[in-house]
Design a protein that fits this description.
With 391 residues, the protein is an alpha/beta fold. It folds into 3 domains: 102 residues, Rossmann fold (3-Layer(aba) Sandwich), CATH 3.40.50; 68 residues, Dna Ligase, domain 1 (2-Layer Sandwich); 188 residues, ATP-grasp fold, B domain (D-amino Acid Aminotransferase, Chain A, domain 1, 2-Layer Sandwich), CATH 3.30.470.20. It has 12 helices and 16 strands. The strands form 3 sheets. Strands 14-13-10-11-12-15-16 form a 7-stranded mixed sheet. The longest helix is centred in the last third of the chain and has 22 residues.
Length: 391
C-alpha cells in the first residue's frame, strides 16, 4: 500500500464537501482542499489544509508539486470539468505521484457529449434525437429536430468562454432570435449539440454512479434520481433520492464497460414517457453535486476510489433501497420556492416525503460550512426576490 497518502479534493461546494464527509467518516485523516474560491468546504474541520488557487493548469501543477513534498502519493477527486481538463493537460507531469481518476487514452472523446451519444448507438443505449453543430452552416440543421430543442456546448467551457449552460428553443421564432448569437459562439470555437427535449420535469432524471478500476472492474456502484432541479427543469441538483429502476443499473454498467471509462463516472438518464425508455442525457466523469446520496444509502464510492488508489482491499457495498432517502440543497430549494410558481407541493415532498431527509452541507460536528452557506442562502433569497419583483 502507498504510505503517507492524502486525498485531494478539487472544489469545496456541495459535491466537494460531501466527498470530505464520506472520506472523513471512513477514517481518512489527511484530506486537502484546493479551490478557486472560498467555498463552504474551506471552513471544514475535516481538512488538514486549504489552498486557494487560480484556475489554471500551471498554478495547479505548482501547488501539486508543493503538496508532494508533504505526501508521497496524492489521490485526486475533481468536481468539475475544468479541473478534469487541467488534470489531463498535466497528466504526464503528475502521474508518478498522483492518482488521476480517468482514462487518459480516451478522455477527450469521453468528455465530448456527441461522442457519448455515438457510443450509445454502438452499445444500444437509448438517447435523444441529436445533431452536432461545429460550423455556422450546421446551425440551420437545428430546424430538422421537432421543437422544443435543447442546445448545449459539447464540453463545459463556461469558465473559459462565457457561454450558456443550455439554451431552450421552444419554436422557430426562438431559433431565429438566437441564430446570430449561436453563429458568434461557433466562430469563436464553441461546438454544440442540439437535442430534442424529452417531456417531463426534473423528477424524471436518473443516475448510475460507478467506480471502475484500471483493470476494468466496477468495484462499487449506486443509483438514484433527482427530485427537482434549480433554477428550472434543465438546471442543477436541488433535491435527490436513492430510488431508481434496474434499467438504470444495466445501462450505466454497459456505458462504463463499453466506453472503457475509469474512475468515478455518472451516466445520467431521463425517462421518456412516450416510449418507456431511459435515454442518456450526459456522462459526468467526476463526482456530481448530489453524490452524498450514495453514501447515505450505504455505498462509499469515494472511499472505494481512495482505497483502490493506495493499493488497499476495497470493501464491497450494497445500496439500501428499502428506505426512500432524500438529500436536499436548502439554498436551491428555497430559491425554487420563491421563484417558481406552484413549487410549494414539490418543496414539501422533497423535505418531508421521504423516509429520511438529509440537508447538504449540514453536519452537527462541523457546522461552519453550513453556516457559511446560510449567508449565501440569505443573499440568494434577496436576489431571487428582487428578480421576481422586477427590482
Amino acid at each position: 500500500m502507498k504510505d503517507h497518502s492524502c486525498a485531494l479534493i478539487l472544489g469545496g461546494y456541495v459535491n466537494g464537501y460531501s466527498i470530505m464527509q464520506e472520506l472523513s467518516e471512513n477514517g481518512v485523516q489527511d484530506i486537502v482542499l484546493f479551490s478557486t474560491t472560498r467555498e463552504p468546504g474551506s471552513y471544514s474541520n475535516k481538512i488538514k489544509k486549504f489552498v486557494l488557487i487560480a484556475p489554471s493548469p500551471e498554478v495547479l501543477l505548482h501547488e501539486l508539486q508543493l503538496l508532494s513534498r508533504e505526501y508521497n502519493f496524492i489521490v485526486l477527486f475533481p468536481t468539475d470539468d475544468i479541473q478534469l481538463e487541467n488534470l489531463y493537460a498535466l497528466y504526464d507531469q503528475i502521474s508518478d505521484f498522483c492518482f488521476i481518476p480517468f482514462n487518459k487514452n480516451n478522455f477527450l472523446t469521453s468528455l465530448d457529449k456527441y461522442s457519448q451519444y455515438a457510443s450509445c448507438d454502438i452499445l444500444g443505449i437509448p438517447r435523444p434525437k441529436t445533431i452536432e453543430i461545429r460550423t455556422v452552416e450546421d446551425i440551420e440543421a437545428i430546424t430538422s429536430i421537432a421543437f422544443p430543442v435543447l442546445v448545449k456546448p459539447k464540453t463545459r467551457l463556461d469558465e473559459k468562454i462565457r457561454v450558456f449552460r443550455n439554451l431552450q428553443l421552444q419554436n422557430e421564432q426562438d431559433f431565429i432570435k438566437n441564430k446570430d448569437s449561436l453563429s458568434d459562439f461557433v466562430l469563436n470555437g464553441v461546438s454544440f449539440i442540439a437535442s430534442e427535449i424529452i417531456p417531463g420535469d426534473g423528477s424524471n432524471i436518473y443516475a448510475y454512479v460507478g467506480y471502475r478500476n484500471r483493470e476494468g472492474r466496477i468495484l462499487n456502484e449506486w443509483t438514484g434520481k433527482k427530485l427537482s432541479q434549480y433554477p428550472d427543469d434543465f438546471g442543477i441538483f436541488s433535491s435527490a433520492s436513492n430510488q431508481a429502476p434496474v434499467e438504470v443499473i444495466d445501462q450505466g454498467k454497459t456505458l462504463l464497460n463499453g466506453m472503457n471509462l475509469m474512475g468515478i463516472a455518472e451516466p445520467e438518464f431521463k425517462y421518456d414517457c412516450r416510449d418507456g425508455k431511459y435515454k442518456l442525457m450526459e456522462i459526468n466523469l467526476r463526482s456530481m453535486m448530489w453524490n452524498r446520496v450514495g453514501y447515505l444509502s450505504g455505498v462509499n464510492i469515494h472511499y472505494t476510489q481512495y482505497v483502490d488508489a493506495i493499493g488497499g482491499e476495497v470493501p464491497l457495498y450494497r445500496q439500501d433501497k428499502t428506505k426512500d432517502i432524500h438529500l436536499v440543497c436548502l439554498k436551491h430549494e428555497i430559491s425554487n420556492l420563491i421563484a417558481r410558481k406552484g413549487y410549494a407541493d414539490i418543496f414539501y415532498f422533497n423535505l418531508f416525503g421521504g423516509d429520511t431527509t438529509n440537508v447538504a452541507l449540514f453536519d452537527i460536528r462541523d457546522l461552519t460550512p453550513f453556516l457559511a452557506n446560510c449567508v449565501d442562502i440569505f443573499d440568494e433569497i434577496i436576489a431571487v426576490g428582487r428578480k421576481r419583483l422586477g427590482i
